[in-house]
Design goal:
This protein is mostly beta strands. The chain has 2 helices and 7 strands, in the order βαβββαβββ.
Length: 172
């Protein structure tokens, strides 16, 4: 199975890409294949942006919110790192960036000085967050995300980068 890679994407490019996928995806959760990937999920991407928030999920995935700029109040995409040896380097780099930012807990952290990074991984539609009778997967939040001091979730879309294979800090 061939996997294509799109590199040098910014967060706004990510949304242009995944919004173009919405008409191609079934609008009902039960029609999303559970044991095989969607054709769009064969796409490997490298997206540059700022790490804004991190949450350790009950399944031990690290749920990270990423934006175009270092401001918290903006559209944010979710990138996730599962546990396991093949994701250890990406998870270690994330934890190092959190420590540098003064994180006191690795369960939940909003970055004070968001680092700019390149995140490499695969496109993934998190169908568990699909809303009934909606097919705007690139805009709905799926009811998730760390809100910080904004009134509603800044997460935009249920398309994610998952799994994340690499995180590379961009030196300013």
């Amino acid at each position: 199975m061939t996997r294509n890679i799109w590199t040098r994407l910014r967060v706004h490019d990510w949304y242009s890409l995944v919004c173009s996928f919405d008409p191609e995806v079934p609008s009902r959760r039960r029609d999303i294949p559970a044991r095989t990937e969607l054709p769009q999920e064969r796409l490997k991407v490298k997206v540059r942006g700022f790490l804004l928030a991190v949450k350790d999920e009950p399944d031990n995935d690290l749920h990270v919110q990423m934006g175009e700029t270092s401001a918290f109040n903006q559209d944010q995409l979710v990138v996730e790192m599962p546990p396991g040896a093949e994701f250890c380097n990406a998870r270690t780099e994330l934890v190092n960036l959190m420590r540098e930012d003064g994180a006191r807990s690795f369960r939940r952290h909003i970055f004070n000085d968001p680092p700019q990074v390149d995140v490499t991984g695969y496109v993934f539609l998190d169908a568990s967050h699909m809303t009934a009778r909606r097919s705007d997967f690139c805009t709905q939040s799926g009811g998730r995300g760390i809100r910080g001091d904004v009134p509603t979730s800044p997460v935009r879309g249920i398309w994610e980068i998952h799994p994340v294979m690499r995180i590379d800090r961009v030196r300013r």
